[in-house]
Amino acid sequence: MRSISQRAYKFNWENRGFISGDHIHLASSSMPSFPILQRSSEEKILYSDRLTLERQKLTVCPIIDGEEHLRLLNFQHNFITRIQNISNLQRLIFLDLYDNQIEEISGLSTLRSLRVLLLGKNRIKQISNLENLKSLDVLDLHGNQITKIENVSHLCDLRVLNLARNLLSHVDNLNGLDSLTELNLRHNQITFVRDVDNLPCLQRLFLSFNNISTFESVCCLADSSSLSDITFDGNPIAQESWYKHTILQNMMQLRQLDMKRVTEEERRMASVVAKKEEEKKRESHKQSLLKEKKRLTINNVARKWDLQQHRIPNIAPNQDRKVSDSSQDPSQLHGSTVSAFPEETGSLDSGLTNDLQGLSVTDTHLVEVDGDTLSLYGSGALESLDRNWSVQTAGMVTTVSFTFIEFDEIVQVLPKLKIKFPNSLHLKFKETNLVMLQQFNALAQLRRVDQLTIDPQGNPVVNFTLWKYYVLFRLSHFSMQKINGTEVTQNDMIMAERLFGILAHVASSELPQYRMISILGDARKKQFRYLLETKGKKPGLVNEENNDSKRLVGENTNRAMLNYTTRDFYNERLEEIKEKKKFCKMYMEDLVKEATEINMKNEALQKLWPQMFIELVRDAVIEIRNKNSYMKLCLQQITDQN
Amino acid sequence: MLSPDRLALPDYEYLAQRHVLTYMEDAVCQLLENKEDISQYGVARFFTEYFNSVCQGTHILFREFSFIQATPHNRASFLRAFWKCFRTVGKNGDLLTMREYHCLLQLLCPDFPLELTQKAARIVLMDDAMDCLMSFSDFLLAFQIQFYYSEFLESVAAIYQDLLAGKNPNTVIVPTSSSGQHRQRPPLGEASVLEGVEASLFSQCLENLCDRHKYSCPPPALVKEVLSNVQRLTFYGFLVALSKHHGINQALGALPDKGDLMHDPAMDEELERLLAQVPGLVNSAPANPEAGCLPFRTPPRVGSPWRPLHHARKVDAESDGSTEETDESET
């Protein structure tokens, strides 16, 4: 038989010149419901192998006697409800029951030669009772109520199967149809297709007007090497932006898509787009991997920080732990059990998870530059300020964010920050243990700060009512714009001055000169010491020093008194002073001893003096009582001397 | 200065009473620390400045706690300095927590211990919730007592505990439910267990204490006065009474009377001068008389503190222009 398309196998009886009905006589028989068909003998001889009973208003199949040679039988457009009375027509090759009211496939078990069975537009609910029709070539079941493909695996000669306009919701169970070339599944409710790769000869597959939305649901098509023609129009998938190139890329063997030839250009485009998508996917995979690593590092740092702050009881850490617990709530940490993988990352796909299992997070700090923000996590990150930052990168940084680092440690690197990142205008502090207003004094040494953000988490100083005013007061020379996101108003500045102005006044005017010099001297000494330590002193740098010191003296000398020395330094200094104090004490004691001795002697002298004086006078008077003998004594003394 | 008492004491004791040695030692120590700077302008000048500042009470600014605590004069100077610097906070009406007051203290003395501030807070709050807010004057007066008389107060606390524990049989605490037995009415008329100790007994013990510690306790007469007003009192009740007593405040001499605690005309003038220098205030409109709830005089140059200056003109311009615009659009 020549190749058949959907319409071609509709055997048009009219064209052949057969007249329907005129030569047929339906006589009533002894059985009340079945009419008996009789044909005139001329007809029998003329058209011995074909019989048409189209539009005969038949409600049942009539008994057909004496027509055992019949090969083609047409019952189109009737009202037949059951296939009956044709079991004797064992030579039948072509049976057409299109447009009837048949509810069940039956009565065909003897028609072993049947090749074409047309049962379109009936009321069939199930494919069944086709066991003996092993020669079936075309099976048309369109326009029925079939919900499942079944009982067709034995039809190894079947080439065309039409199941359009049925109630199929999915396609599977297609094994055994080794000759199937065309499968029509239009106008169903199909959401996924399987087993098509088991059809070795399938060339044309029509899936228009179904419910397919992803390529994954029809992915078996990619494995079918015989497919050359496919339609998806009317499916949700056809509306997607990636539809065409995904199909073309996955089905290189296609020649026609949606009844249009696939051009080389289209194929090329498809592969290009597919490559791009692959790249993008890889890129985003890499990004999420990096992000995940960053998150784990930060969690690690956070955990170390919490331990340091004695928020969690100090448990001996499990040395083999590869992935740290992501939970930040201390009450959830349970000893040293290894958490397999935190629940928060449920959204990551499995591929990512596999890659991360191998990550060992031993980092204790993280440094990240993201455009204009430099983020530092963990105290180890402070060392990164020593790195050789490119001028461009460093120049772009306007925001510096510190997290999980003690403020006292940050204070020590502020001079470095000033030099390496001259454009940093916004400082953010989170979990940095800011507890005293005094600590803000340390920020005064920077060149300029526009914005300050102190996150309440880990910075108890924010709980104070007056902290913002103190910051504005102490750092008034910066003319700050924003604190914690709120604009600084003129009122704020005035209030700050009103609250703390007198403090500054007292600090500057009422301190003795030597104290002022010593306090200022300390601060300047520290700055100079650092500047001397930096390598490669350029002439420009020296000028900056001078400008800074000038500015220090000119503006705000009254506030310059308010310094901050970290607790450690302060204690160190007190320790150093102890020696001096001891010495002073001893020195003073010696002085006092001397003084008291002298005093004592003086007092004793005072007491004894009157008596002594009287005795002196008495001795003198007694001596001079006898003038002559006294004169002789004196002269004698003089001559003795010579 | 020429009283015979002065000569009656042996040398060391005399020096100790006046704490002369402390200051001398400290002066020499300061000299040693800053010898490079001081050598520039001479040792004599240094000593002059040093003792001048001791007289004025500015020597304790930004010094370590051990020095500030060393002599009563230092303590009084420190109290005065604290009052001077942060009176404005009190005037502003802000109520602060104990921690914040401690922070302010640390601005003047970096290693000021937290316990002292806590004890002072306990006096104000009567040993109640320690996170409560306190007013400046309450805190300052309580802090004065606690800081200036710390040693005295410790001894008093010990005595109080002894009395409570019933070392003296007279202070057995009797519930007043049985009417025939009660000898004293509880201070607030409550029908519950009597608190505290009997005032007269307490007073006797304190007198003995004062005799022993001649140098750093409140005038005994005033203490007696405080104790004579009540029958029974608790430890913190006693301290609160001490802190609020005018006489003791005056005897200490560091702070002005409670009523005058917010007044300091000299500093207010200074403050006005400073406020005038705040950038942006110079070219502003004259002050509104009703604006500002604070009593200090506003000089005519300074703008109203409560009007946001950069918004003022804009609003006016808009309101002036809008009527014209609507007129035009209607035509």
pLDDT < 50 stretches of chain B: 169-174, 176-193, 282-331
- Report how far apart the termini of chain B are: 94 Å
**Which radius of gyration of chain A do the C-alpha atoms yield?**
54 Å
Strand order of the largest sheet of chain B: 1-2
Biggest interface, CB < 8 A: A-B, 57 and 61 residues
How many DSSP helices of chain A?
13
**Residue share in helices of chain B?**
55-70%
Q: What portion of the residues of chain A fall into strands of 2 or more residues?
A: 5-15%
Largest sheet of chain A: 11 strands, mixed
Determine the structural class of chain B based on helices, strands and strand pairing. mainly alpha
DSSP strand tally of chain A: 23
Strand order of the largest sheet of chain A: 3-5-6-7-8-9-11-13-14-15-16
Helix fraction of chain A, binned, reads: 25-40%
What does this structure look like?
The complex is a heterodimer of chains A (642) and B (331). Chain A is built from 13 helices and 23 strands. By secondary structure, chain A is of the alpha/beta class. Among the domains of chain A are: 166 residues, Alpha-Beta Horseshoe (Leucine-rich repeat, LRR (right-handed beta-alpha superhelix)), CATH 3.80.10; 56 residues. In chain A, a hairpin with a 2-residue loop joins β17 and β18. In chain A, α2 packs across α3 and α7 crosses α8. Chain B is built from 17 helices and 2 strands. In chain B, strands 1-2 form a two-stranded antiparallel sheet. The C terminus of chain B is likely disordered. At the A-B interface, α8, α9 and α12 of A face α2, α3, α4, α5 and α7 of B.
